[in-house]
Amino acid sequence: MSSREPEGRASSASYTYSPAGPFNQANGNGPILAVDQRPNEASSLTWTSEPLSVPTEATGWWSLDFWASVNAPDTDFVVEITDVAPDGTSRQMGRGWLNAPRAFSRSNPRPLVPDAIYKFSVEVWPTSYVFPAGHRIRVDLSGSDCCVLGSDPNPTPARVTVYQDEHHPSRVVVPVIGAVAAEKLRGKRGGNGRWDD
Questions:
Q1: Residue 62 has pLDDT above 70, yes or no
Q2: What are phi and psi of 113, to 5 degrees?
């Protein structure tokens, strides 16, 4: 997670989804869960900010905008926002979902063209949360939050490649409250997705 412009060299990161699992089991009655998400993150792409120097409030809608190709006509995207404590514990404070064929029309879904590159935007349910100083903000992207998007996991295996170069700039929209906190939010290499490349 970074405020820097993407560099010119090619950069991408991938994950594989299978209907046989493993699944992100971060289900609950609300958007905030106290369960450590690190086991789920092992099968996700993750991007992590550097430690926050001041307490940082985020109130409202988040979104993850990214460019990706899928080697299948159908897949689901699950985005989680987590609060990473200094000891590494990663706790969910927001999440959102998108079925890729419905990315451009909810009422008239259309299959993806395998391996074509699309721009996707996944909204994260609105919430209000204060990240303490010294904590980090993490964004996770995976293929399942079993079984929120339907009664069963998506039946289509898929490999998803996320592109992160100057022609395919990705971004996380963070509803930060307060200009000082916004200025303090800067990134570094911190996850397997290498958001700042």
A1: yes
A2: -85, 115
- Cβ(25)–Cβ(39) under 8 Å? no
Contact 182, 52 (CB under 8 A): no
89 pLDDT above the threshold of 50: yes
* Percent of the chain's residues with pLDDT above 90: 52
Note whether residue 30 is domain-resident. yes
If phi over 0 gives left and psi between -120 and 50 gives alpha, with beta otherwise, what is residue 66? Answer: beta
pLDDT for 45-56, tens place per residue?
Answer: 999 999 999 999
Amino acid at 57: E
Specify the pLDDT at position 38: 86
Per-residue pLDDT averaged across 110-131, rounded?
95
Asked whether residue 39 is domain-assigned, the answer is yes
Neighbours of 86 (CB within 10 A): 10
Q: How many domains does the chain have?
A: 1
Is the residue at 1 inside a domain?
A: no
CATH code assigned at 99:
2.60.120.260
Structural domain that includes position 69? 12-184
Paired residues of 42 in beta bridges: none
